[in-house]
């Protein structure tokens, strides 16, 4: 037996005040038939906010200062802070960008990253230097000393511009700001900052010092330009930090490579090689198996409909050893659908799965703009997706796919039925539309060109970025939905 609403998760921030206060929490879940269940209320005490002490002074490295931007060669020197060199959406975003700019000789690049991975070899083959560093320290003293080390490295390398990739790489941006090097920070995560900090530091045995945690917000506000891949995420951050300097630069992928892959690998040959029948209708879920991707919920709702669609096959690519992954596998077995569901480990050869698929499914409840959606549409694969953040900026319901309400089991099930009831001729029209949208909007050279111009502007005159005229919603124009958009109700007793 599975509980109503099983498979979804949510983390929310309980704001602290000047004094301790109580909050009543209840959880509401909606069953597939539309009936609602609500848990008993639990009253918790939120401790008063404690003043955050200033950071200690770092060990002296002499004069860590930079009087003025100065190009050392005929092109800028750009240091890039990355969180990982393994396979993942944020990592592939950066790899695509750097390889294109390196090929165009936009700048000299140095990548600093705490986690080595398979992407390192390709970066180095493009003459991009890679330095494997260490994770951001959680205690204040080690943080300021590590920041000073990075500042000294940037000065020694004669860095002109810093790019930080992903929200967790704030120490690199902070180190650059301390010595006056301009920063562009690429933010992929669609989390409220307090929630993100919980995810970032939650695995640490020792609770991080709050003055280290606070550097994330401070560094965001002092960054020359914060780059977002989706307008919805950009607007969410403006709600939190109205003074933020932002720009939305949509990213892209390598369209010619995908076109060549399709020409060399027929759909029928790929499907046969993967062990599928010609009559199988393949629903592909591509992405790391983890709570926010909601694969458990997808499996549960697929089990509810597959009996009526015996040719439907669900393929989940991206499993790795984890308790959540184990629970997804157990659910498949307990539900008796192992003949209709295939769970595949993380696979660097993702193109074969897109080539084989009929529809991509994304049940993720937190996404800015998944790379898998761009790649699927380029392969002519329509998308069934939870309508979160930037997804609806590229997926049009009824034209290039189908949208459903996130964390809603009933809507997910209805979405699966909509997909499986779609005729072959309707699917062919949607496939063609996906290809047309991709050809017009998803060329990776577009964001490489925008970044090239940005690097040129920052290296010559960082102040020019600060005059960005921001479009879209202002902080006061729309209601923030950080808590209201979830199925968790908060009440503050008098």
TrEMBL record:
Q: Where is the Glycosyltransferase subfamily 4-like N-terminal domain?
A: 87-255
Q: Which domain of life is it from?
A: Bacteria
Q: Start and end of every Glycosyl transferase family domain?
A: 267-423
Keyword presence, Translocase: no
Any one GO MF annotation of this record: glycosyltransferase activity
Q: Keywords of this protein's UniProt record, alphabetized? A: Glycosyltransferase, Plasmid, Transferase
Has the keyword Lyase been applied to this entry?
no
Pfam families cross-referenced by the UniProt entry? Glyco_transf_4 (PF13439), Glycos_transf_1 (PF00534)
Q: Which organism is it from?
A: Rhodococcus qingshengii JCM 15477
Q: What is the name of the protein in this document?
A: Glycosyltransferase family 4 protein
